[in-house]
Structure formats: structure tokens, C-alpha cells
Design goal:
Length: 189
């Protein structure tokens, strides 16, 4: 079996009942900064809390460069009701030889516990299987961040185990819990 020939088409727009997942633009910088500058939001993430709007602009520019190279950049999570960006998700790692992707995500604190992230993650998993031809999608979270594990479970992922001291960030080693879903598992509606 040949590895899939991945073409991200500059991150196509994807939709769910309440959300639009789309490419980031520089106009999104204030909304990105609103969540990325919140230490409670970034507490368990691998990247540093944004100290300035310029940090958010650089992140968006990095993603826009990836769109131009037909690599998976970030998708902004837009709440249909307001038209505002409330978070991002994207393919953190891709191994086309093994038909596998790792997804990461972040959501602004005022939108936690409303089901938005499982909805967005579920749609991204469908994109990976249906459009990219992948077989496995995985995600990890810091052991201390149980809410992220619940998001993964709601999106149809199964817990696989704890990886001891898998990540080093913010001056320490972190244990992470690993979740995955296979194409053959089917997807919850």
C-alpha cells in the first residue's frame, strides 16, 4: 500500500453544526492573542503564553507560510453564532509513511465546557480519514489536564496509555496520556 499523497489544499474550510474551521488570517490576531495570552489556557501546552500581539501575529504568519507550502497549518475555530475565532486546532505531526497524524488544539477559556472542542476535533478526525486517507489519528495531553482527555474521548478516541516524561516544556518533564482513533473504529455522530 502506498502512503497517501497529502495535499492540504491550503487547509480547506470545514464545517460542523456550530463551527467553521478555516485558515487563519492576520485579522485573527486579536482573537488569537485573547486566548494565547491567558496563562490558564496555555498552562499545559507546549508553547509559551503570548506576551504581545506580535507573538500572535508571528504564529499566524507561520501558519500562513505553511498554507503556501501545502503543509497543514492551523485551522481557526470560528463560532458561527458570533463569527469570532475562539480557538485553533491543527495537525501537529504527520507521518504519511504510516498513515498517521497527531492533532493538537486550544480553546479560549470562555468557551470551555460547551462541547465546541469535541465537535471541532471530531470534524478534524473525519478530514484526516476521508480527505487525507489516513488510518490513525492520535492526540496527547498532560496528565494533569484531564479535561483534554475527556475532549478526546467525546471525539471517539480511546485511551492507549501514559507516556512517562514524554514532553519537556516550561522547565520540566511532563507525563502525557495518549489517545487514538482508527479509521476502522468508525466515528461517533
Amino acid at each position: 500500500m502506498e502512503p497517501p499523497k497529502l495535499h492540504f489544499l491550503a487547509n480547506p474550510t470545514l464545517e460542523t453544526e456550530r463551527l467553521v474551521l478555516r485558515r487563519l488570517t492576520l485579522d485573527d490576531a486579536p482573537d488569537v492573542f485573547a486566548y494565547a495570552s491567558d496563562p490558564e489556557v496555555t498552562r499545559f501546552l507546549l508553547w509559551d503564553t503570548h506576551a504581545s500581539l506580535e507573538d500572535s501575529v508571528k504564529f499566524i504568519q507561520w501558519s500562513m507560510d505553511r498554507y503556501e507550502k501545502d503543509e497543514a497549518g492551523e485551522w481557526g475555530i470560528i463560532l458561527k453564532e458570533t463569527g469570532r475565532l475562539i480557538g485553533c486546532l491543527g495537525i501537529v505531526k504527520l507521518n504519511s509513511a504510516h498513515f498517521c497524524a497527531e492533532i493538537g488544539y486550544v480553546l479560549s477559556r470562555p468557551h470551555w465546557r460547551k462541547g465546541y472542542m469535541p465537535e471541532a476535533l471530531h470534524r478534524m478526525v473525519r478530514f484526516c480519514f476521508e480527505d487525507l486517507g489516513l488510518n490513525r489519528v492520535e492526540a496527547v495531553h498532560a496528565v494533569e489536564n484531564g479535561a483534554s482527555g475527556r475532549v478526546m474521548q467525546k471525539a471517539g478516541m480511546s485511551y492507549e496509555g501514559t507516556l512517562r516524561q514524554k514532553a519537556f516544556t516550561k522547565g520540566r518533564f511532563w507525563d502525557v496520556k495518549s489517545y487514538s482513533v482508527l479509521k476502522s473504529d468508525g466515528q461517533p455522530t
